[in-house]
Amino acid sequence: MTQTGQAPIFALATGAGRAAIAVLRLSGTGTGPILRALCGTLPEPRQASLRGLWRRAAGAEPVLLDRALVLWFPAPRSYTGEDSAELHLHAGPAVIAGVADALVALGARPAEPGEFTRRAFANGRLDLIEAEGIADLIDAETEAQRRQALGQADGTLSRLYEGWADRLRTALAHQEALIDFPDEDLPPEVESALLAELAALRDAMRAHLDDAGRGEKLRRGLVFTIVGPPNVGKSSLLNALAERDAAIVSSIAGTTRDAIEIRVVLGDVPVTLIDTAGLRETEDEIEAEGVRRALFHVKQADCVIAVTDGTAPPSDLPPGALLVRNKIDLAEHARHQSPEGALAVSVRQGTGMDALRAALADRARALTASRAGPPLTRARHRAAIEESAGHLAHALDMDWPEMRGEELRLAMRALGRLTGRVDVEDLLDTVFGQFCIGK
């Protein structure tokens, strides 16, 4: 792709709040003249230069706005592929506002969310999957999320899908040869090899899809729901894991009526802990609604933490629930009375809490651990690959060469939507609208 020649835009690339430096980015046709108007001459490309930034109005004395480090990135060697610049300003609000006003007066406008990265996509500097990786990198809370997002932003996932697209393109060329030259006595090995390649591609896509959503779970974070009968210490456990008093704790059964959500990090994975109402039969309308919501959160959870102070866990729990027997400091022979596989703890005294935290961290890592190859990270990717694999399966069932060729074209279009090669206009606002203004 070539530079689009769009009007200049600007935005802060650094966060709000008091700081020493604020980085203001500028990109688009006319960036060079705007930079000259601000600081007199253009700096050497890609070299930081200390310049005075001036507001010059007709019939008025020039006004010095700031002394800033200025960087000039002529097209196409810039993030967006357009003429671009960075102004490293002093971060006072008055300085930022004054420079922004000067840029507007010189013909630039404030950028919309994701507009810098959208222009980079339009100019062929990156594809949609890489752009989504940059968004995920900005939002990464943990080291594991950072590694996954950085791999996607660096093109590991794109290269996998482009490799599939290249193989499909070759297969389609062979299929077209079988259609266009039926009388050329092409050897039967051509069609046999074609079918074998289509089967291999279909199997590779299915294997990629069969990952239990690990990449998507790491990207968005996990949900661990704490359930159990009333007054077994669920809220106390939530507070202990959150390391703060997030939920009200009382000896009165039924204190928790609604779900309480707390974000923590377990095993380098973001986890939302949900404390729920005690599970029991009740005629209290509000408490009954809390129980209904608790059961809903059980169904949605990646892991259920079932808490009890008796010898048996709560009933009707999904397979794989982590059983926790609390209040062992109040029970005799607690170690022998715990259900098989349960973790015995005393939240009040801290007994067993290190082992519980380790078990929860292990569960979080197991639910998000990637296998060989880059992981799927978004539902959009999954849907496109499922569609492409489905068309390949249909192609393998087709006896008519023309129908098989059409299925291969549809499979290629589905893959093309992943990286933005075809049919992407309806996706762009959704993808780039998730970005912060300065990206």
TrEMBL record:
InterPro entries cross-referenced by the UniProt entry: G_TrmE, GTP-bd, GTP-bd_TrmE_N, GTPase_MnmE, MnmE_dom2, MnmE_helical, P-loop_NTPase, Small_GTP-bd
Residues binding K(+): N231, S250, I252, T255
Domain TrmE-type G span(s) in chain numbering: 221-365
Main enzyme class: hydrolase
Pfam families linked to this entry: MMR_HSR1, MnmE_helical, TrmE_N
Location in or out of the cell: Cytoplasm
GO molecular function: hydrolase activity
EC number of this enzyme: 3.6.-.-
Broad class of the protein's primary localization: cytoplasm
Keyword terms of this UniProt record: Cytoplasm, GTP-binding, Hydrolase, Magnesium, Metal-binding, Nucleotide-binding, Potassium, tRNA processing
Keyword Ribosomal protein appears in the UniProt entry: no
This protein's record includes keyword NAD: no
Cofactor(s) this protein requires: K(+)
UniProt feature coiled coil, ranges: none
Subunit structure: Homodimer. Heterotetramer of two MnmE and two MnmG subunits.
NCBIfam families attached to this UniProt entry: mnmE_trmE_thdF, PRK05291.1-3, small_GTP
Role: Exhibits a very high intrinsic GTPase hydrolysis rate. Involved in the addition of a carboxymethylaminomethyl (cmnm) group at the wobble position (U34) of certain tRNAs, forming tRNA-cmnm(5)s(2)U34.
Database matches in PANTHER family: TRNA MODIFICATION GTPASE GTPBP3, TRNA MODIFICATION GTPASE GTPBP3, MITOCHONDRIAL
Protein name: tRNA modification GTPase MnmE
Gene: mnmE
